[in-house]
Amino acid sequence: MTILLTNAWVLTLDDTLSEHNPGWVQIDGSTITGMGSGPPPSIAGAEIIDCGGDIVMPGMVNTHCHMGMSVFRGLAEDVDDRLYRYILPLERKFVTAEMVRIGSTLSAVEMIQGGVTTVADMYYFETEVAEVCDRAGLRAIVGQTLADFDPPDHKTFNQGFALVEDLVDRYRDHPLVTPSIAPHAPYSTGRAVMERIADWSLANPDVPVQMHLAESTLEVEWARKTHGQSTVAVTRDAGLLKPNLIAAHCLQLDDADITMMSEAQICVATNPRSNGKAGRGISPVEKMRNAGLPVGIGSDGAMSGNTLDLFSQFAPVSMFAKLLGGSRKPLPAVEVVRMATIEGARVLSLNLKTGSLEVGKQADLIRINLAAPRLHPIYDPYSLLVFAAMPSDVTHSMVAGRWLMRNRQLETLDPVGAVRDAVQIANSFKAEMRRIDESHDPA
Length: 443
Ligand SMILES: [Zn+2]
Description:
- The strands form 3 sheets. Strands 1, 2, 3, 4, 5, 14, 15, 16 and 17 form a 9-stranded mixed beta sheet that branches.
- It is built from 17 helices and 17 strands.
- The N and C termini lie far apart (67 Å).
- It has 2 domains: 2-58 and 362-410, Roll (Urease, subunit C, domain 1), CATH 2.30.40.10; 60-347, Alpha-Beta Barrel (TIM Barrel).
- It has helices at 82-94, 97-113, 126-136, 157-171, 186-189, 191-203, 217-227, 231-237, 255-264, 272-277, 285-290, 302-305, 311-325, 333-340, 342-347, 381-388, 415-440; strands at residues 2-11, 19-28, 31-37, 47-50, 55-58, 60-65, 116-123, 139-146, 177-183, 209-213, 245-249, 267-270, 295-297, 365-368, 394-399, 402-406, 409-410.
- Strand 11, helix 9 (255-264) and strand 12 form a beta-alpha-beta unit.
- The longest helix is centred in the last third of the chain and has 26 residues, at 415-440.
- The protein is of the alpha/beta class.
- Helix 1 crosses helix 17, helix 2 packs parallel to helix 3 (126-136) and helix 2 packs across helix 17.
């Protein structure tokens, strides 16, 4: 079955940023088979969709997420010790396979509605996340997290490795879902286990590694006190600084760290909203990109960044770069859109499949309606996307030639059921939080 999208403003995000306006895109099966300007070719039996001048562009790539955590969205927002007071106790008590499935489903709904077609996730009970992404039709990298703080799905690292092996066995050959191993962070994994993961990774080079890196001053202090070097150097010496590492956050870096990361050709996921809200600092995105590191944009979990679309990340990622540079010039809008699409795909080693609209690549695309007065007049479509567009302007979403959303109607998931299930979980969280408050501050 051929689909022809016609009368569209096609932003390809290819190497030369070519555009077709008005243009057309031809899709056969899962693949983009043709593209051009002006009227489309006539193809017998093709389904023709007139886009009415809307933008058609690559679906966005969310390079760092914890989908299961959307049930924590907005919880104890401004409480500084909320991680230890609420989050970790709630995770230990309530995080089950079912909770992860419910949280991940809500996240998948939100991401499809917000223009994300590929996500890199790391959390617990990750086979549940993989199942949700499979059902949703999202392209995904799903990472089983390993950590030493008594996480909800493993008591020992041996048990954690068994979960990784199970995930890899089940999803190694899946067309959309790529299994991944996800040491939580250097300080919560430890050098010896990082070395073990590095060895495992050598034997499984097709499995991406995801890890939080250089996220906080506490982590930097841990590395200096325990190992007498930077957290990036600890990671390098453990053997994990490699091209298949997707390092999230990367805030607390000096120039030597950036050189090490660039020599090792690792990939970075920056999470501006999450970092800004936590007061953790500003990631040196321009410096890293100038050093040749690919940098994608991540939402982080909804507990930290609240929303999982990338439009919400555009203003902070852009403003942080401009504030650091003290001028309007750093990180132009087009570069932000690149980071959200083709560069994000590069971060996940999926750039040969997705991230730009090119003949032969997978048909992962979104359509953005331009009816809102807020979007006019238009001098530059990239400025529009970064500073004026909203997730609700996305009307259609397609992954591998399959519609996930048409005219804002979801094709694969039930948004009403997703919200209802999440609210039920939140009710049990609220009751437990009252109990915690009473035990902290008895009347
Ligand atoms: Zn994270």
